[in-house]
Amino acid sequence: MASNANCLNSIPISMSENEQIYRKLEKGTNLLKVYLKRKPERVTFCVKLETRQILLLKQVAGRSVLESAVDLREVKEVRIGKNSKAFERWPEETRKFQNNECFLIFYGNSFTLKSLSCVAKKDECEMLVKGIRQLAAESINAPYPLLVETWLRKEFYSMENLRGVRSKEESKAHVPIAGQNWRMYLLKYGTYTMLPPAKHINKYFLAAS
Fold first, then answer.
1. DSSP annotation string for 100-160
2. Angle made by CA atoms 110, 157, 184, in degrees to the nearest 5
3. What is the pLDDT of residue 41?
4. At a CB cut-off of 8 Å and minimum separation 6, what does 127 contact?
5. pLDDT at position 13, please?
6. Tens of pLDDT, residues 114-127
7. Per-residue pLDDT tens for 144-154?
8. Bridge partners of residue 41, in order along the sequence
């Protein structure tokens, strides 16, 4: 596969257009997600800029429930069209949609990438593809301090329970990290693309109480 820059094919857009697209992505849009193992269903597709994640939400008993999340740093390609196994799996259900109403997101860190197959209105499809390409490219090239901040926010939200309550120990894990401790973690456990297990947070990241 080609390099990330080529695959994302990010076309420079003006700052004002950028902001408009990002606001729309944050607000979210209702679209059709095409699954591989079950029939297509409608979901809310949005981006959480704080954590640099694509979120897919489903309505369950009148509440929005997170179905899945994709790290924008893991996005390798965003493509318009129907060329995916999910679309092939449901030809009758997706035949009525034009290619320019469908888009695919390929992501992951392994050799075999995962894919997300979606259907939206033509104008929304174009906006979503442009915005995700731009955000993915920005996330991949983000400066080191922003990577650390994004990781902290993801960990913070992932430990938040349904009532929005955190334990004292969980909250302590998200105080500012000393640069030396972070570098020690990277040397021992890998790159910043990996989330550290909770048992390692205590050793490397907790400030003195």
1. GGEEEEEE-SSSS-EEEEEE--HHHHHHHHHHHHHHHHHHHT--HHHHHHHHHHHHHHHT-
2. 60
3. 97
4. 21, 24
5. 55
6. 999 999 999 999 99
7. 777 777 777 77
8. 33
